[in-house]
Amino acid sequence: MTxxxxxxxxxxxxxxxxxxxxxxxxxxxxxxxxxxxxxAKKIDSVWCSTDGELIASVCRxxxxxxxxxxxxxxxxxxxxxx
Length: 82
Fold this sequence. Notes:
By secondary structure, this protein is α/β, with parallel strands linked by helices. 24% of the residues lie in helices and 24% in strands. It has two helices and five strands; from the N terminus they run E-E-E-H-E-H-E. The strands form two sheets. It has a three-stranded parallel β-sheet, with helices on one face. Strands 2-3 form a two-stranded antiparallel ribbon. The model has no long low-confidence stretch (mean pLDDT 89).
């Protein structure tokens, strides 16, 4: 069995613009999430669903597969399948 970490990161934000790529200690926030996912012992691969090209670029640079999603699936009230 393959275990996949899926990160959902939309480009739009009402409070902090581009918060997923905002720098903390000199690195984009999403890099910390990707790195932690890669370190997890039971995770085989890391994927990110995003509607933002800047987020996708950071993901690709960090060995994270990108799943592009249309803008209409990046709103405030999108269900993650709960």
